Give the backbone structure.
Amino acid sequence: MTTIAFAGVDHYRIPLPVVLSDSTHGDIAEFELVTVRVRDAAGIEGLGYTYTVGRGGAAIAVLIRDDLSPVLLGAEPDRIEALWQRMWWALHYGGRGGSATLAISAVDIALWDLKARRFGTPLWRLLGGHDPRVPAYAGGIDLDFSLDQLLRQTDDNLKKGFRAIKMKVGRPRLSEDLERVRGVVGVGLKLLYRNPRRPAKPT
């Protein structure tokens, strides 16, 4: 029986080449990436992660370092559901959602990655998958992009091999959304859209 010998966390800030805008979060100048490494006594390591759109990453990293790592050390790494329950109840009183859920999810991913590596099989196969290929789409935080910017982004995604994209709708005027949708649909992609409902501005 092996046990967890190490659980570490790293927090990165990743500046974006272009400031993005989202009706829910406002301007986004950087993403935050929080990574978790869980290593067993045999030296096999699993990697998990979560991310934010610029705020809250430090809080997630502290929760993992100070509150979740002690729960993991010395535990059997294959008992993932039991460890999830222990992590959930360790953070439960401080809140059920937000930073706590993001912290737990990053560790959970690392535990599943560790298990797959210990079994020497891809995670998709360990979880019962039958096909290593999955449909993928390119998504962008593009609500405030001009039509030209949106089409340049779409062309770039086509060059990368994507055949489906997700774009944001919810501009101040419906005619703007329609113009953008028509422009993208015209290039022959499968289109997914999201309307996060821009909050009403006070009058």
In short: The first strand starts at residue 4 and ends at 22. Residues 138-194 form one domain. The chain has six helices and six strands. Strands lie at 4-22, 26-40, 45-52, 138-139, 164-168, 190-194.
